[in-house]
Specification:
eight-stranded mixed β-sheet; alpha+beta; 342 residues; binds ligand DP6; 9 helices; four-stranded antiparallel β-sheet; binds adenosine-5'-diphosphate; GHMP_kinase_C_sf
């Protein structure tokens, strides 16, 4: 019996300049480059075992065996590595999401970054993290960015080999993010489906692509200058522009719920009336993410609790690069997993 084992942890990331739309669906090549902040609070741990006794791939998530559909997604992803390394063994994949799954909190980002690193470790691939991000991309676009900590750019590139993520800044300054988890149930319209429909039908879509490039250049300058106000303003504007493309799709749709609007209103009110600098963004789900200064976080959490007493409010610091786990660390992770991400 031969086995090859790899284990890894990757954190989720929240885009400040969104990836929204593909120019090549099969290769996951995006229409626009994007930039994110990796979060310390949410992550995925994954173990992969290639084993010549297996007659098919297996996949369990949070201790539950997954459907054929989910397994075939994993198999297609593993095939990229098997082809690259001329590997014929099937694999057993076990994964733990310390983040709600499919709720717009980027579980697919941490998931495929962790799976990519665990697989590359098992198969002893000699790839830089940037090169590995081109593999992660084929599982879910946003996962390219989860191989790195801090602020990360995903360059749309010219082809599959150079559409990769790169670290921009480690965010070891006065930066944090607060998640307003208004609903952690599974979303109705997956990001993949929502973006495809938008590219195909929104009359605002070209404006999105044109202005995203400018937003990216400006936000990188703001990061280099550690200019929080400009960073926040660009983040909020870019997120709202992405959501405007869903409202202008045909038929239109939205990821905003009544609770998202309430949360948005709370952020605006706190900013205007209490003078705490905080800027919001949203993804393909109803939850609101608030970019803030780490030094304002405690005060901001208290204010948000006053305005939104019923909501789960989760503060997070910037997260680190994805890393390889030892068997002991994996076992510790299994032992602490409750099935109820924080
Ligand atoms: P999210 O906002 O959580 O990223 P998506 O709909 O984009 O939502 O992605 C969720 C999908 O990602 C899940 O339905 C599943 O197919 C896949 N996924 C989530 N977590 C894992 C994991 N740990 N390992 C493998 N695939 C995962
Ligand atoms: C709104 O990366 O989940 O969160 O590549 O089809 O798997 P696929 O989509 P995914 O989309 C993320 C969309 C977003 C913005 C972002 O994270 O950049």
């Amino acid at each position: 019996m031969t086995q090859a084992v790899g284990r890894a942890r990757a954190h989720t990331n929240i885009a400040l300049i969104k990836y929204w739309g593909k120019r090549d669906k099969d290769l996951f090549l995006p229409m626009n480059s994007s930039l994110s902040l990796t979060l310390d609070a949410f992550y995925t741990d994954t173990k992969v075992v290639f084993d010549d006794n297996l007659t098919e791939d297996r996949f369990s998530l949070n201790g539950k065996l997954q459907s054929e559909k989910e397994i075939s997604k994993i198999s297609r992803f593993l095939d990229l590595f098997r082809e690259y390394k001329d590997e014929s063994r099937f694999a057993r994949v076990e994964s733990l999401n310390f983040v709600p799954t499919a709720a717009g909190l980027a579980s697919s980002a941490s998931a495929f970054a962790a799976l990519a690193l665990a697989t590359a470790t098992a198969l002893e691939l000699e790839l830089s993290p940037e090169e590995l991000s081109t593999f992660a991309r084929r599982g879910s676009g946003s996962s390219t960015r989860s191989l790195f900590g801090g602020f990360v750019e995903w360059d749309k590139g010219t082809c599959s080999a150079d559409s990769m993520a790169r670290p921009v800044d480690d965010a070891s300054w006065d930066i944090g993010m607060i998640i307003l988890a208004v609903n952690t149930g599974q979303k109705k319209i997956a990001s993949r489906v929502g973006m495809e429909h938008t590219v195909a039908t929104s009359s605002f879509y070209q404006a999105w692509v044109d202005t995203a490039a400018e937003d990216l250049e400006n936000i990188k300058k703001a990061i280099a200058l550690r200019d929080f106000e400009t960073l926040g303003k660009i983040t909020e504007h870019n997120g709202m522009k992405m959501h405007a493309t869903t409202l202008s799709a045909n038929p239109p749709f939205t990821y905003f719920s009544a609770k998202s609007l309430e949360a948005q209103e709370a952020v605006r009110t706190i900013r205007e009336e209490l003078g705490i600098s905080a800027y919001m963004t949203m993804d393909a789900g109803p939850n609101v993410k608030v970019l803030c200064r780490q030094s304002d976080m405690e005060r901001l959490v208290r204010a948000l609790q006053d305005y939104l007493p019923a909501e789960k409010i989760i503060p997070s610091l910037p997260g680190k690069d994805a890393f390889v786990l030892t068997e002991e660390e994996w076992q510790a992770s299994l032992a602490t997993f409750t099935g109820e991400p924080r």
